[in-house]
Amino acid sequence: MKGSSVILFQNCRIIDPANNIDTAGDMILSEGRITAVGKAGSLKLQSSEGIIFDLDGKWLVPGLIDMHVHLREPGEEYKETVASGTRSAAAGGFTAVACMPNTSPVNDSEAITALILRKAEQAKMSRVYPVGAVSKNSRGTELAEYGEMKQAGVVALSDDGRPVANSQLMRRALEYSSSHDLLLISHSEEMSLSENGAINEGALSTRLGLRGIPHVAEEIMVYRDIALADYLRLPIHIAHISTKETVDLIRRAKRNGSKVTTETTPHYFSLTEEAVGRYDTRAKMNPPLRTSEDVEAIREGLRDGTIDAIATDHAPHSNMEKDLEFELAANGIIGLETSVPLAIALVRDNLLTATQMIELMSVRPARILRVPGGSLSEGSIADVTVIDPDRKFIYTRDSIVSKSTNSPFIDWELQGKAVLTVVGGEIVFNELG
Amino acid sequence: MEMETEYCFRHKHILGLEDLSCDDISFILQTAESFREISSRPIKKVPILRGKTIINLFFEPSTRTRLSFEIAAKRMSADTFNISASTSSAKKGESLIDTALNLQAMSPDAIIIRHSYSGSPHLLAKHINASIINAGDGFHEHPSQGLLDMMTVKQRKGTLQGLKIAIIGDIAHSRVAHSNIIGFSKMGAHVYVSGPATLLPPGIEQLGAKVCRTVEEAVTDADVVMALRIQKERQLDPLIPSWREYASFFGISSRLLEKSKPDAIIMHPGPMNRGVELDPALADGPRSVILDQVTNGVAVRMALLYLILGGDR
Ligand SMILES: [Zn+2]
């Protein structure tokens, strides 16, 4: 993506954690790159051609990167497509997303990877980094062809949606992925404990008469995954962590030198299991929403750096999968358009600094996936996001850009919003005027 | 002059005892007592619900509860229709909401639903105008059973206040247990539960029950001992090794019952696995009120239908 236009941002609060910068300033993008960063009022456009944005103190940050989304294409285009999903991403301030392979067919081949990348190119919205399957058809029995998929463009591997249940296969996957220098992302869940569960196990599951998913189902598998990675001295990334004990496990592992990284989602730091209310399927996801104690631990993990990234696990579903008996309804919620305001709430609560928030949503995802971005250095790709931290809005069903509307945050009053998204120097979303 | 605020029953649906107040429950039981007399008349029919349409929508096989609701509705001259759908066929094609919208076209006044998934009555209530009565949803609630159990105990003991109720067995998978724990504790009784730890769900204390490690502890000085059905068909996990072992360690025997109050009564929501949950001699003995439970079932269900559909609402 090579940008043709020149953009000058004036009066910005430039937040660039990679360069230790949080200061007032100006910036010029041209030819798809960041060409100048300077003090406030110091930069001018050379010619009359170009767009000038006076940001009036709004945040100018490296483009946000969501390392865990489901774009549903190929196979479930009625829920989301690469085009609609990346439009939703752009509207949420994301210049790049990593999409999980549990499509239909599963992305376990170079053909599917190429198809997704072709669709992304046509959409001209956010960048898309496909994640390939760990096992053929994500069935958990044979390794997929990592080398071929990497050549086609996958940036990591995962059987997300389900765990790699067999420990021997997980070991071989870690080993073989290291030969291709690809990161393994684990959906850590001990299925024999969680199977048929619908919500977090505890007093609420008992009260609602729903089978529970005990938090140990997550922790046992996180422990196994870290133990295997440690044994092989290889890195591993644990997806969407949701429990206090998982945060503790990962904190301890990092202290002991494990090469483990992890992500959590806005719903795990914003909602408790009580959001299920009276069988509200919009609050059904896997892992399930947990208790307030878990939410506190997740927040602390974000604050002290145990958790490396905020990802959305954007999981679109139509009403057909959600307007059902609770136990039959599909797991997952959309998240791309609510991630920024929910994360900014942590900054307003003084739990995170703005710098920490941008580290979690841009810098570290870029480093973990080893993709461009995450920095506002001169010469970097012109992927930037403008955030208005004060903008209040009501997140209505009608305002949703994603094809699906399965969100527990509908009708919430939110504060803080991405107002401009620039990918490779091209404006892909503009609410700045 | 002092005005007494008059009690008024204000529920459109009966989804669970968790939604009813102590006053609501007392009023339902009182109304049910007045209907019990109708069932002993030579002509057991009153015209209170003439012209009302009631649909029995059963997604799980049940003769007893369905029949009890049907008799209750017919004794009040309502028109009743039975629809049995298997959950599996519903899974294949029509969703529950589709089914509900089709029924809506028949303009029913009430739909009585039994479903193996918890929360199904709540889903129905969200999408349809009719009153919904929960006749048992998953492991969640079975409010009419809870009410008829309270009615039965109240007849024998005069009050519910301060009684010790012991509920023994599969608490985790029993909607009857859930409704009884909620109902009896709302009415001032003390509910104790016990059974194998595999069948005691987490956080059951928050519904109002005290958990006892041994069955003996639970039944000691109890006024009421309720044995729950072991629902083998519901169990996806290994929960008990065998019925024989269950019967000898967790079944209610006469020896165990010596620990309870001398006038303690024995209840079972049925259908019973004879010789498993309860010594057969006890089930058929003088302390058993199992048949009263059946009779009161009709009266309670008449009361519910009347309160929801009858009068000048
Ligand atoms: Zn997952």
From TrEMBL, chain A:
Its EC number is 3.5.2.3. The keyword Metal-binding applies. Substrate binds at residues 70-72, 102, 286, 317. InterPro entries: DHOase, DHOase/Allantoinase_Hydrolase, DHOase_cat, Dihydroorotase_CS, Metal-dep_hydrolase_composite, Metal_Hydrolase. Pathway: Pyrimidine metabolism; UMP biosynthesis via de novo pathway; (S)-dihydroorotate from bicarbonate: step 3/3. Its cofactor is Zn(2+). Transmembrane segments: none annotated. GO terms for biological process: 'de novo' UMP biosynthetic process; purine nucleobase catabolic process. Binds 2 Zn(2+) ions per subunit. It catalyses: (S)-dihydroorotate + H2O = N-carbamoyl-L-aspartate + H(+). One of its GO terms (cellular component) is cytoplasm. Zn(2+) 2 binds at residues 160, 187, 240. Gene3D superfamilies: Metal-dependent hydrolases, Urease, subunit C, domain 1. The active site is at 313. Zn(2+) 1 binds at residues 68, 70, 160, 313. PROSITE patterns: DIHYDROOROTASE_1 (PS00482), DIHYDROOROTASE_2 (PS00483). Keywords: Hydrolase, Metal-binding, Pyrimidine biosynthesis, Zinc. One of its GO terms (molecular function) is dihydroorotase activity. Residues 57-245 form the Dihydroorotase catalytic domain. Pfam families: DHOase (PF12890). HAMAP family: PyrC_classI_B. Catalyzes the reversible cyclization of carbamoyl aspartate to dihydroorotate. Belongs to the metallo-dependent hydrolases superfamily. DHOase family. Class I DHOase subfamily. This is Dihydroorotase. The gene is pyrC.
